[in-house]
Amino acid sequence: MTDLEQRAVAAYLGLAIGDALGATVEFMTPREIVVAYGRHDHIRGGGWLHLKPGQVTDDTTMSLALGESILAQGGVEAQSVAQAFDGWMRSKPVDIGNTVRRGIVEFRRTGRTEVPLNEFDGGNGAAMRVLPVALATFGADPATIRQAALVQARITHHNPLSDAGTLCVNAMVQLALSGTDRGALRQGPVADLLAEQPRFAYEGKPQENPTGFIVDTLQAVFQGLFATDSFEACLVEVVNRGGDADTTGAIAGMIAGALYGLDAIPEAWRLALDGAVSERVVTQARALIALAGQH
């Protein structure tokens, strides 16, 4: 594989691994994690969803549904994505967020592929699944990238903070795919986000027990990413903050995977990930980055 292909695969594996690692401690506080596990750094399953070791949640499976739609259409097409999300929900996923559920039900009821603007829908569900868009639009013009990211987002989330956070995560992944360093991520997409939406400011008090609110989520991700210097350290730091740990783990994992590359992912984590999921994310990552090459 080329360096770009390896980083794309690492990003998708990072998403799934962060999801599986974080799901064990989702909704726990940092103190509860310490009591139960000490430092949680093994993919062991369990958690409130009673997962098998290596099993993933909606963060990964919804991303895969999005990616399948993109590959089927050769791009991000709103009706196809909405239908893919509808099919995903009908498959009875292990978990589904309230805002995501409402958006998909709205599509079933009305056929509309964009929910109304809602000041209360600033959740992290659009950002957690944006990776397939980041891969498929790598190298495209900025307007195309922005439109694609927001098309998938607004099927369930239409909120300025959600939009801004989703676009930032997308931009961070794409910049990391190009082989940059953490400083460039901080000075580029993250600085742009803070200029547009100062509420995302992350320096200062550690964001512990982050909720599903996109601001809390990305503050925890930024703090973990910029305080560490490896894929493993980043994910361990982020998920041990508890809260919505499967999603903070998934977002940190996709960014850190693209940033540090395939060789940086611990072999034990790769082997612990559900084999069928691992095969699907690797195959889809390679197909999506190949689609990007057709721009």
Overview of this protein structure:
There is one protein chain. This protein has a single domain (3-292), classed as ADP-ribosylglycohydrolase fold, CATH 1.10.4080.10. The chain has helices at residues 3-23, 30-37, 58-73, 78-90, 98-110, 125-128, 131-136, 142-153, 160-177, 182-196, 214-226, 231-239, 245-260, 267-272, 275-292. The chain is globular. It contains 15 helices and no strands. With 295 residues, the chain is mainly alpha-helical.
**Unreliable residue runs:** none
Task: Let me know the largest β-sheet.
Answer: none
Overall spatial form: globular
The name of the CATH architecture is: Orthogonal Bundle
Mean pLDDT: 97
Task: Provide the structure class.
Answer: mainly alpha
Helix content: 55-70%
The share of residues in extended strands comes to under 5%
For the secondary structure, the number of strands is: 0
Total DSSP helices: 15
CATH topology-level fold name: ADP-ribosylglycohydrolase fold
Total separate domains: 1
Oligomer: single chain
Q: Give the N-terminus to C-terminus distance in angstroms.
A: 20 Å
Task: Give, in order, the helices and strands.
Answer: HHHHHHHHHHHHHHH
C-alpha-based Rg, rounded: 17 Å
Assigned CATH class: Mainly Alpha
The CATH homologous superfamily corresponds to ADP-ribosylation/Crystallin J1
Sum up the structure in keywords:
single chain; 295 residues; mainly alpha; ADP-ribosylglycohydrolase fold; 15 helices; 64% helix; 0% strand
